Predict the structure.
Amino acid sequence: MFTVYLSTVYCSAQQSKIDSLLLLVKKDNASPLRGNRGGLDTNKVNHLNALGWELKSSNPDTSIILLSQALTLAEKIKWEKGKANALRNIGGYNSDKGNYPEALKYYLDALKINEELNDKNGIAKTLGNIGIVYGDKGDYPKALDYYFRALKMAEELGNKNLIAIWLGNIGNVYAAQSDYPKALDHYFRSLKIREELGNKNGITIQLGNIGLVYAGQAEHTPDHSHRLELSNKALDYYFRALKMSEELGNKRGMAIRLGNIGLVYDEQGDYPKALDYYFRALKMSEELGYKELKANTLGNIGVLYTQIGIFVEAEKYLNHSLALCDSIGALDNIKDFELYLSQLYDTTGRHKLALEHYKKYIAARDSIANDENTKKQTRTEMNYEFEKKEAAAKAESDKQAAVAEAESKKQKIILWFTVCGLLFTVVFAGFIYRALRITQKQKQLIEQQKQMVEEKQNEILASIRYAKRIQDAILPKEKYIDKTFKRLMKK
């Protein structure tokens, strides 16, 4: 059986957002550029970035054109934050394309600018994006390293949306390694935050992921009662995710959940319910033109009919599935469904056809093995390129840090000498001021003493003059005495 491990959310709300952004971009294009970091120019960069990101999955060719325009405009107006956002989005485009070395290059360039700007939100996003690249490459230790660094920064910022995203992605890494307890722990933590934020798209994704973990645990549990308990838990979360997908009008999500619910009922042996959900998923996948889900569902219906002995219908659905798998190059499904068809022909006594389809199964299996070897070699080469680029980026970062540290030390020395010089100047000025104050006080004291002496002298002179006046008033003058004496002598 084949579980559909897809959690993409694309609904009418997203289309509405795209339409709104298209109108904004058209309005921006009608306005002349200011040639600087004016509001109109920065808004245009933001709108181009946002629209390019929204179209990344549905229309990647248009997406990369818009993101490149955002980057060019940001560089023209010298707006570093807008440039970093465009670089990160172009990195995401390359990551989706599987062009990991290019994705890493753009992410590292974006990270460098964010660090220079001390834009912690940008740093947290870019670190997590690099983690996604490593996760896609299957390098789980490095993926976790970047995710945890991104998570720590998001927690420091209190950015709950980013915290929820990176918790969910960490859960994906653990789930890929079949470490189900850790996967569930991070999924539940992410779900709680999504619920607090009221982010229904995020809630739907996490509910589906939790269901997938329980379904995976059930498949690997030998105990029947425990297996049933786990598969019922999976159903509970699938139904909740289905209900929310219906509320959001997200038909793609609905088709995925219907198919997953059918798988659980199939595993439980409840074939009527399994067929009901398979056919509902099949109908919706046909309406959406979702070929991969349609091929999976057709094959699962064929396998179920084989199990219950309805061989004519089983053959029809398996052949239909294989034709569709061939058209989309789904080798994994071709391998599995060719084996089931071979077993069906062997059971019904058509051994020549059984051998023919078994050979096709072997060819598909070997092709996958060769492809895996090629991918392994490619991953090794990409790892080398990644590590080389990372080493170069780290060396450049260390160089800049060393230059910055040297400059910082130089500035500290200059500042120290400046402070010392100022302190010396202040102390010397204080000494001069004190000396001037003392001199001024001494001068004032001398002036006071001089004034006192003059006052004393004036007092003495005044006393002498006063005594003389008294003397003049009491004693007769010498001329008068002489005159009187002569008069007496004549007698």
Remarks:
- The radius of gyration is 46 Å.
